[in-house]
């Protein structure tokens, strides 16, 4: 690095070393207990095992801090009138920059260690999907004050002010927590906890003893009853887990409209998140009603906007969610306020239903899926054990009528319509989605028709847009019905490809 080459550039906050030390120390302590038990179980003395574990922890923490020190010394960043630039200048050199006019989101995240030390992670993105993260820069970490300054500066909010005194669009209502257990996440967490317990017991060499203990506990109880009891226990654990996860994600939730035209979502108990969406890039909303929430009369609101940051495998944060599951009336009210409409488009229009042929298609699809599953159980039962035949028969008694009910519900949920500036579509049963998309935001139409749809006179029209998921579908509409809807929604876009009869 030449002298003065990086004059005026900023460095990351030096407290990153303490963050790394505490993080690695926590990981070392978490791993120490099962490792110590495993070593002692192998015949070693406790003090010898402890010495090895402590030495390993020191190496882990020390190595992590040393690597972070090299990273901290090598990273520089600066904000110019035209660009945000970063550089790494240790051992090898690399530079990266984003044009400020292309920056679409500046998100702030702080886990408990960050909050303890007064720092935050700033993720700046263009909303594009280049490979290798070329459309994103992460500054990990900077001081909390610097993070707020960068957010205001990069989103061109020179006039931004603290909005705590202004009325927010929405704030946390603790009664919303009642919708947290009404999710497929509840049984998933319960089953995952049971699987995790079995895995840990295997690591510690106690799995056989655990299984014998459970068998002894249910001795004399019919197998079916024992299974039902275990499933009930898993559901209780899943319920507690779902409640805890909801509190962690949505505590201190607040949705603000800031000066300059930015929607800002702030939430989180231990890990805090601040997500910004420019209103001029908002193209609509998606009212999402998973089956459990719909039964309890709740829905969440997702933003349909251009340049939205997408979650990856390492980061499952829903950056597009504006409102968690709330009463449907509340969700529609917030959707209307977000869109600056007197009434939410999702409730301002009476949706047009789809032909009865769509109902038959859904019935065949749902019932056929169950029949395929039962056929697999039957084949395996004949080849392996009669127990699978009994399980398959029990599943058939339950799943066949359920599949019919879901198919009929999915048909009732099909619909589309136009209201003012928006086209509206609805579909789904396990996860019902009602989207309202700005007609001006549609850049193309895709018409899909499978062999089976063609035989029944059905088709699917897909509105292509640069916002949100990129495509929003109206499923199983009548041929003439779907094409006329697309033509009326965005005149002249599809007209040149239509043949008049």
Describe this structure in words.
The protein contains 14 helices and 19 strands. The protein folds into four domains: 139 residues, no CATH class; 73 residues, no CATH class; 184 residues, no CATH class; 57 residues. By secondary structure, it is of the alpha+beta class. The longest helix has 29 residues. Helices cover 45% and strands 25% of the residues. Helix 5 packs across helix 7 and helix 11 packs antiparallel against helix 12. The strands form four sheets. It has a seven-stranded antiparallel beta sheet with strand order 6-5-4-10-9-8-7. About 2% of the residues have low confidence.
Features:
501 residues; 7-stranded antiparallel sheet; 6-stranded antiparallel sheet; 19 strands; 45% helix; alpha+beta
Main sheet summary: 7 strands, antiparallel
Structural class: alpha+beta
Query: How many E-type strands?
Result: 19
* Beta-strand share of residues: 15-25%
Q: Supply the number of helical segments.
A: 14
* Shape descriptor: flat
User: Averaging pLDDT over every residue, what do you get?
Assistant: 87
Domain YdbS-like PH: 72-152, 411-475
Pfam families: bPH_2 (PF03703)
Keywords: Membrane, Transmembrane, Transmembrane helix
Transmembrane segments: 17-40, 46-71, 184-201, 221-247, 365-384, 390-411
Topology:
Layout (H helix, E strand, L loop, with lengths): L15 H26 L4 H29 E5 L3 E6 L5 E6 L5 E6 L1 H6 L1 E7 L10 E8 H11 L15 E2 L13 H19 L3 H11 L5 H28 L3 E5 L3 E6 L4 E7 L3 E9 H5 L2 E8 L15 E7 H12 L5 H4 L7 H28 L2 H28 L1 E5 L2 E6 L3 E8 L3 E7 L2 H6 L1 E8 L5 E8 H11 L12
Antiparallel strand pairs: 1-2, 2-3, 4-5, 4-10, 5-6, 7-8, 8-9, 9-10, 11-12, 11-16, 12-13, 14-15, 15-16, 17-18, 18-19
């Amino acid at each position: 690095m030449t002298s003065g080459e990086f004059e005026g550039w900023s460095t990351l906050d030096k407290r990153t070393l303490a963050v790394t030390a505490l993080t690695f120390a926590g990981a070392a302590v978490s791993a120490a207990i099962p490792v110590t038990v495993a070593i002692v179980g192998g015949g070693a003395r406790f003090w010898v095992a402890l010495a090895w574990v402590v030495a390993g922890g020191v190496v882990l923490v020390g190595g992590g801090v040393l690597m972070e020190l090299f990273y901290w010394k090598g990273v520089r960043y600066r904000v110019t009138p035209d660009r945000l630039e970063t550089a790494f200048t240790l051992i090898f050199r690399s530079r990266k920059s984003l044009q400020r006019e292309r920056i679409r989101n500046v998100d702030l995240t702080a886990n408990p260690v960050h909050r303890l030390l007064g720092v935050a992670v700033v993720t700046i993105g263009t909303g594009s999907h280049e490979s290798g993260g070329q459309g994103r820069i992460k500054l990990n970490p900077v001081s909390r004050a610097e993070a707020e300054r960068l957010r205001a500066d990069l989103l061109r909010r020179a006039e931004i002010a603290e909005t705590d005194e202004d009325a927010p669009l929405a704030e946390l209502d603790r009664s919303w927590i009642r919708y947290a257990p009404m999710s497929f996440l509840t049984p998933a967490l319960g089953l995952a906890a049971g699987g995790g317990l079995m895995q840990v017991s295997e690591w510690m060499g106690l799995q056989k003893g655990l299984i014998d203990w459970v068998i002894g506990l249910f001795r004399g109880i019919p197998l079916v009853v024992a299974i039902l009891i275990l499933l009930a226990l898993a559901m209780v654990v899943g319920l507690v887990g779902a409640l805890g996860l909801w509190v962690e994600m949505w505590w201190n939730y607040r949705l603000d409209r800031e000066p300059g035209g930015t929607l800002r979502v702030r939430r989180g108990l231990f890990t805090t998140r601040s997500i910004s969406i420019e209103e001029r890039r908002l193209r609509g909303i998606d009212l999402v009603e998973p089956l459990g929430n719909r039964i309890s009369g709740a829905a969440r609101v997702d933003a349909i906007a251009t340049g939205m940051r997408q979650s990856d495998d390492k980061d499952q944060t829903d950056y597009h969610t504006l409102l968690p599951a709330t009463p449907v009336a509340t969700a529609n009210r917030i959707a209307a306020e977000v869109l600056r409409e007197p009434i939410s488009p999702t409730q301002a229009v009476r949706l047009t239903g789809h032909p009865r042929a769509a109902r038959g298609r859904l019935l065949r699809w749902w019932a056929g899926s169950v029949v395929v599953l039962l056929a697999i159980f039957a084949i395996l039962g004949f080849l392996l054990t009669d127990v699978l035949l009994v399980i398959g028969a029990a599943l058939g008694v339950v799943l066949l009528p359920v599949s019919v009910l879901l198919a009929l519900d999915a048909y009732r949920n099909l619909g589309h319509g136009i209201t003012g500036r928006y086209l509206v579509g609805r579909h789904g049963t396990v996860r019902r989605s009602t989207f309202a998309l700005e007609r001006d935001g549609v850049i193309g139409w895709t018409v899909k028709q499978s062999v089976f749809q063609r035989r029944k006179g059905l088709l699917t029209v897909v509105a292509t847009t640069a916002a949100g998921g990129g495509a929003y579908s109206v499923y199983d509409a009548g041929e003439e019905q779907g094409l006329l809807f697309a033509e009326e929604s965005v005149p002249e876009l599809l007209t040149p490809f239509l043949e008049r009869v």
